[in-house]
Every structure is written in structure tokens, then in C-alpha cells.
Amino acid sequence: MGSLALLPLGPLFFPRIYLIVLFLYFTVFLYSQVNHVCQFYQTSRKIKWTIRKWNKKLERAKKQAFANEKTAWHDGTPTGSHRHGSSSGGYSSHEEDEAIVTSTLDEVEEKLQYYQETHYFHAFIIPNYCEPEELLKDTMERIACHSSAASHYGLILAMEESEPGWEGKARRLQQYFSDRFAHFIITSHPSNIPGESRGKGSNVAYAARHGCRELIEQKGIDSRRIIITVSDSDAAIPELYIREVEHALNTAEDPYHVLCAPPIFFSRNCFDVPAAVRVTDITWSAMVMSNLSNSRGMCIPCSNYSLSWVLADEVGYWDTDADAVGEDMHMWLKCFWKTQGLVRTAPIYVPINLTNVQTEGYLSNVNARYVQAKRHYNGVADVAYTLKHAFHGIPSKVSLYERVKVCLIILEAHMVPATSGWLMFAAVPLMQFILFPPLAWIAFVDPSQNPILTSEFYSRLWSLIKLITLCLPLPLFGTLAVYEMLHRMVDREFLHKPKEETRKLSNVVDYVHLPVAAWLFMTLPSTLACIKRLLWQRQEIYITSEKLFRGDKNGLVTERQL
Questions:
Q1: pLDDT tens, the chain, 562 aa long
Q2: In a domain, 61, yes or no
Q3: List of long-range contacts for 134-137, beta carbons under 8 Å, 24+ apart
């Protein structure tokens, strides 16, 4: 609200002070954006390194398995019950090699221990409300194909009691995956818990309390071995992510105060949505990735993350009131403050592939993304939550530097979108119009009294500010260049998409939508969230995103209110 008020009032009533404010704001903003580009580049390199390390392990294992099987074939002692005869039994060399490849490489990933034996028991919580059954089945199938799923995975399907037919859908999924996971648990979140705000956080909190209690008390799982992974209903979680989580926890000094956060990636249906939606999620993804390279392990998870049951129980699980609508950010903040700053984030450089918001129709799709953006920025309540815990009853074990750093991270996440859009787009043009109008008869200030023209210092400062504003988009261009290379690499080397199904040079045309997308999906919803929070402070109706899933059956998720 302050940035909006400054736009007309600054040039008219205190132009010189306003110039200094703009200079400081734009300079700090430019520095932070350059810093984010560097962080994003570091993250992209680590993602590429992790993926290529994984691929090399797979390739070595396949070659070894191929060599072993071929040796056994020529020795006349082929492995596997489907072998018949030997190489002298009428097989050509080419046919023999194909038979060996078919018989060995299909099974190698199941037999290969990529890092070491799985130590922890992984509980996957999948909160959902009216999601297409085929979408949920697809998400679970991607987890069920992991080599340790049947022995070390527990799936907690977090349903909402207010969803019509939830029980039948949950039972069908449980029956379908009954032998694919070590345990399959269904929780049903009631809709009438006093003092609770409806949404993902309250559903996850209920599922974690009751689902993990069943794992511990009824299934006999050691509570100190349980790692909770919160997954979106459309998340494609690869096995590499779990292997890297295990590695991070095994090498951590205190694994029970570590929260594991991966980058998010939108590649499942990116070519089926409007370009404005696509580039918005690209920039969102890039911001999350740059955040992962923050120092001291102070980075906020987004959508999907993992933490130990011990940590969740220590801090009292997820908050469920209206101030905790941004469940991922809020949970990290809660863990940090409740443990007196002991909790740190371990970046997991394995992208989690998500689905863009998608509906039938261009304008409907744009509106659906706007609704999602409004929900995201309702998490502005975390600004007050952070400031309160940082400076009210100062935590004895959290240094001043760390308190300030956490505050800056949260302020940047919620305050910068609500201010930068207005100031970057309108501050300089509006001041130019007010103090240097194109026509003399619309002048608001007499040229002889113009405070900028009557001072050489402020005249030069004004010229410098205009130059800085021209440089503000440059870090964004650098970020997008890094992203384009990363996206293609992930699609081809990790997701194994054919070349024609990944982004091409021609797709850079998408970025002409950035100015509109930034204002519509970032500045406007974040500004409205701030104003509503200040003036009304009422609980918002939680509206889940619209997504179109095309599997065996088409399922359209319409706008839904919890």
C-alpha cells in the first residue's frame, strides 16, 4: 500500500526524498536479482551433476549386468527361468545380444543399490480434494515403481470427508496398490474441527498425526526411522529423490533437524497451457531453485519436501489456523523457531515434475492460474508470524544475523512482488509525466520550481535512476537463459523425453508474455493479499487449483472450495 501511495505522492510532495528512496530500492533490488542469478546457476549445475551421476551409475550397472549375462549365456548357464538353450542353439549373434538385453536390462534397476541399503521408512502423504482418480493413480504409480517401495514405503492417502464419494475412491486405490507398498493407509480429514482453516496444511497435519500413529502403533515401524514426504497430488517423484534424501540424512550431523527440499519443475503438460501461464511457472520454478543455494541452509521448501517424524512431532505437526495457509513455508518457519534455529534445509538437487494449472479454454486457464496465485500470496500472514518470532521475546539461541536473514527471505517472498511490480513499471514513467510532462499545459509543477532541475545532484541522480531501471530486466534474462538450458537437459537426460517434446529455441517467444504475467500473477494478487490482510483480516475460502489430467480417462478438476 505504501508503494502505491508513493507513486503519485512522492513526485508531488517530496520528490527529492522520493528519488533517494527509488535509488536505494532499485539498487538493492538489482543487486539481489544478480545474486539470484548466481545462485540459480549454482543450483542448475548441481542438478545436472546429480542427474548425470545417477545416469552414469545406471549405465555402469547395465553394462556390468549385460557382461555377466552374456558370459553366462556363452558358458551354457544362463540365469533366469526364461532361458532355453545356449548360443549354439540356433541363435544369431544379433538375436543373442537382443535376448540378453531384454532379459537383463529390464531388471537391472530393481536389483541395483544405487547408493546403499535403504535405512529409513518413507511415509508419503498425498493430500487431495476431488482430484481425478487417474491422476492420483498416476502419482502413486510413479512412487510404487521405486525399488524399495514394497519394503520401505508407506503411502498415506489424505482424503477430505467433505468430498463426495471419497471413501470408494480411496478403497479402490488401496486395493489397486495393496501389494506395491509396505503399507497403504487412508485418512479422512473431518470438515468441522473447531478453529481449523480448511486447506492442504490442515489435511497434511491430520494425515501425519493419524497415519504415522498407525504406522508406529499398529504396524510396528520405529518412529525414529520414519521420514515424512509431503507430495502434491500431481507430483512425479523419482527414486533418485529418495536416494538423495537418504544420503543427505545419513551424512547430516543431526538428521532429526533437517528438512529436505527439492526444486520444482513444470514439464508434464507445459505445452498444453497458455504461454502466460507457462512463463509464470517457469519464473516460479527458477525462484525456488535459486532459493535452494542460500547460505546456512536457510531456504524455504515449495510444495514437496521431506522431514523426519521426530521433527514433526517435536514442533507439534503442521499449524492449521488461517495464518498457516502457506503450509510449506509456514512449516519450515515453525520448525526453525520452535527448535531455536537448529533446523536447516538440505537441498536435494533432483527436480520434482509438476503439472501446470490447466482447464478447457484460454481465458478459463488464465483465470485458474490467477486463482492459484491469490491462494499462494495469502501466505503473506507468514510475514507477521516471522517478525513476531524474530523480535518478540527474542530466541536466545538464534543469532541476530540469522533472525534478520530469515526475515529478509520472507519479506522478499511476499513484499517484493507487492512493491516491485508497481515501482518498476510505474515509478519512473509517472514521475517523468508529473515533473517533465510532454505538454506544458498539463504541467503539475512549474519548470522554474522543478526540484530536480534546480539541483545538479538530483538531476544526475534522476538520470542514474533511469539508467538503473533499464538494467533491471538483465538479471531476469540471465535467469531465463540458464533455465532454458536446464529444462532441455532435464527433459532429455532425466525424463527421457524425445527431442520434439522438449523446449526448443522457438519457445523463447513465450517470454514476451512476461510483463503481463508478472503483473497479473504476481503483483496484483500479492497486493490484494496484503490489502485484505490489513483491512479485513478475514479467513479466505481455500480454493484448490484446476487441473486437467489426460490418462486412460480424461478428468477435469473444476474450481473447488474447501
A1: 788 888 888 888 888 999 999 999 999 999 999 999 999 999 999 999 999 999 988 888 777 777 777 676 666 655 444 443 443 344 445 454 544 444 444 444 444 444 456 789 999 999 999 888 999 999 999 999 998 999 999 999 999 999 999 999 999 999 999 899 999 999 999 988 888 888 889 999 999 999 999 999 999 999 999 999 999 999 999 999 999 999 999 999 999 999 999 999 999 888 999 999 999 999 999 999 999 988 788 999 998 999 999 999 999 999 998 788 889 999 999 999 999 999 999 999 999 999 998 888 899 999 999 998 988 888 888 998 999 999 887 666 888 999 999 999 999 888 888 888 888 888 888 888 888 877 776 767 777 777 887 888 999 999 999 999 999 999 999 999 999 999 999 999 999 998 888 888 888 999 999 988 998 999 899 888 888 877 765 555 555 665 665 553 344 444 454 5
A2: no
A3: 134/549, 134/551, 134/552, 134/553, 134/555, 135/233, 135/234, 135/547, 135/549, 135/551, 135/555, 135/557, 136/169, 136/173, 136/233, 137/173, 137/176, 137/551
Contacts of residue 176, Cβ cutoff 8 Å, sequence gap at least 6: 137
- CA angle in degrees (0–180, nearest 5) for 420-422-428: 100
The Cα 189–Cα 161 span in angstroms is 6
102 alpha carbon, distance to own chain's centre = 37
**H or E element in which residue 157 lies:** strand 153-160
State the total domains in the chain.
1
CA–CA dist 51, 128 (Å, integer): 29
Q: 239-251 and 15-74 are packed helices; what angle lies between their axes, rounded to 10 degrees?
A: 100
CATH of the domain at 375: 3.90.550.10
Instruction: Give the global pTM.
Output: 0.85
In one letter, which amino acid is 237?
A: I
384-417 exposure pattern, b = at least 16 Cβ within 10 A, e = fewer: ebbeebbeeeebeebeeebbebbbebbebbbbbb
Q: Which amino acid is at 495?
A: L
Residue 181 lies in a domain: yes
Distances in Å between the Cα of 212 and the Cα atoms of 81, 186, 271, 303 are 40, 11, 38, 20
CB neighbour list of residue 2: distance below 8 Å, 6 or more residues apart: 419
**Contact of 209 with 317, CB cutoff 8 Å:** yes
- Does residue 353 belong to any structural domain of this protein? yes
Cell numbers at 195, concatenated: 478453529
Question: Residue 532 carries which side chain, given as an amino acid letter?
Answer: K
What residue type is assigned to position 73 of the chain?
A: W
Q: Is residue 308 part of a domain?
A: yes
Domain span at residue 273 reads 1-49+118-562
Question: Could you give the CA distance from residue 196 to residue 216 in angstroms, rounded to a whole number?
Answer: 26
Q: Please state, as a whole number, how many other Cβ atoms lie within 10 Å of the Cβ of residue 452.
A: 20
- The neighbour count for residue 212, using CB atoms within 10 Å, is 25
